[in-house]
Amino acid sequence: MTKGRLEAFSDGVIAIIITIMVLELKIPHGSEFSSLEPLLFVFLSYILSFVYLGIYWNNHHHMLHTVKEVSGGMLWANLHLLFWLSLIPFTTGWMGENHFTPMPVALYGVVLLMAAIAYFILQNQIIKKQGKNSLLKKAVGNDIKGKISPVLYVISIPAAFINTWISEALYVTVALIWLIPDKRIERTLEKTDDQL
Amino acid sequence: MTKGRLEAFSDGVIAIIITIMVLELKIPHGSEFSSLEPLLFVFLSYILSFVYLGIYWNNHHHMLHTVKEVSGGMLWANLHLLFWLSLIPFTTGWMGENHFTPMPVALYGVVLLMAAIAYFILQNQIIKKQGKNSLLKKAVGNDIKGKISPVLYVISIPAAFINTWISEALYVTVALIWLIPDKRIERTLEKTDDQL
Amino acid sequence: MTKGRLEAFSDGVIAIIITIMVLELKIPHGSEFSSLEPLLFVFLSYILSFVYLGIYWNNHHHMLHTVKEVSGGMLWANLHLLFWLSLIPFTTGWMGENHFTPMPVALYGVVLLMAAIAYFILQNQIIKKQGKNSLLKKAVGNDIKGKISPVLYVISIPAAFINTWISEALYVTVALIWLIPDKRIERTLEKTDDQL
Amino acid sequence: MTKGRLEAFSDGVIAIIITIMVLELKIPHGSEFSSLEPLLFVFLSYILSFVYLGIYWNNHHHMLHTVKEVSGGMLWANLHLLFWLSLIPFTTGWMGENHFTPMPVALYGVVLLMAAIAYFILQNQIIKKQGKNSLLKKAVGNDIKGKISPVLYVISIPAAFINTWISEALYVTVALIWLIPDKRIERTLEKTDDQL
Questions:
Q1: In chain C, which residue's Cα lies nearest the Cα of B95?
Q2: How far is residue C92's CA from residue B187's CA, in Å, rounded to a whole number?
């Protein structure tokens, strides 16, 4: 079983997901600037989801880089991840079209949480297959980012029913945590860990 | 003729099919949890078809792994398979939107049956090309899964007009037969065969 | 400049064209068998276009197989071909939804004709680049298929205003000419040529 | 980190963008030639955007050809470029459906400008990573095209509110500048530079 086709298929699916999301930016009927206004929230949601999918693609890329042999478990864990990612255009559109009302914002978080869990499962499948000297295990380290993210999602889901902006702020926070170049933050976190 | 492009094209088409299916999850107008209710059947259909396409991608992957030379017959047998798979988003959407009424459920089975037959034709094209010592023929063995699946589809199609849940149960059964790790089941089946 | 990316991009575009066509098979509201009836013509058009795109992908595959160096002219000739192919979902949908009325059937032929011309231009770009001992030139031979097809399209376009079934018969004929295994027909044609 | 997956992902996204644009060519209800008339502007916009995306794909192809090592900065600069390109189907559709009214024409230019800036950032990321003897830096030279294009976009955006045809003429001009074979123009421009 070759890694190449797994990567190609995942790239294809993520590329399609990231691109069909833009179809939710429905072309307005008027041609005034004001006719774009109702799209503001959809556009903001689009940016957020684009960044998330970019992060997933990027991390997926790195993770598979450590893989030599593909197992059946990996294939299905990968499809499971792609399943949750494929729902992002739906939750993005629902959240955007309803101008960040509680239920859609919460559901957006639920799908992000499920994707994070699916990513975690895939990571473990790979580590398990690689055995004791797992390269991925070393690369991931204590995986602080991977542990903080789901915690923040779990907070943001009920928070949507208090104030949706808390949830949005948390979603942006998670994205930023992953966007900031890996090495620097990891070194910092390792040092922090050492001091604790 | 190279195998690489055949794989890449098939991967592309399957990746697109699996992803555009999500477009049938039409974003509801309301923002209450209850506005998601009409989507329940579409969502269940989506999960089922996602798993089926995942299985097809996975098996296609394995099957082509044994191929060294691509023949014209293979190319067209492959396109024929992709044709039937490309109809899955349509039957998935029709079945989901009509909440599992008989005709759409039966048609869903017809398309699955045609895809299974197309897969079987492709498999035979490859075995034929590989000749006497066909690697694929050895790998497939007595192909119990490949023989049971169309039988279950053939039962599920008329069954939809009695009770659609029988058909759905059969579709889920076929998916499970393929999902359960290959090696273990094949060994079991081989032993069963030996005892007969 | 590498051939790989040209192939990958073309495969991607053709895979997407062939797949988004199915989105024109709009899911009917009713769940009776009769609610599928209005889709009959769309479905027939879909099959025809699927076969055409399959032929283009197949031939494109073979043609690029002879290419070693990619020129700027080839890149643009290839994009020009993809442009006309990208209009096929539109003409397919228009022809199908209007149940094969003259104008859409004629336009379907116009787009096929333009694609055939674009393919011919791309072929010439490659032969020109390969120089005197062009491998593609030898492979193509007298290119009888490539010369007959546009002639049949040119007949089928005005014929649509007399009887659209003449045009449809011609479109099917061209598809069959290309579908029948290459070698046998080429040998036959070569013999016929020799006798003339 | 491998270049292959970056190319494959970018190809995938650009292939999808270029193809889903055709979905904005909504199939008209009538089957007369006149029912195609309202689509004229959408079709013209489609051609223009198709050419632009072809140019971007082509240039992206060349640019990445010089890359050996992929940096994190490149990955994100690339995603940033894909983000702006992904908005082209939206601005194309809005411009086409409103028959080239000022605001949509201006917005079309804004997205082209942002894509040009994003491309420039990606180019700089690559040059920076390649260091002193950057191959890309030599290939780009004084980058006259890259400098003229944004200037023309900046002119065309306000010009849309005077006469949208000025803007359209400028968009076509930029496309032509890039379409004309690189080497000849670059040699000419270099000579012109020398004379200045």
A1: C31
A2: 48
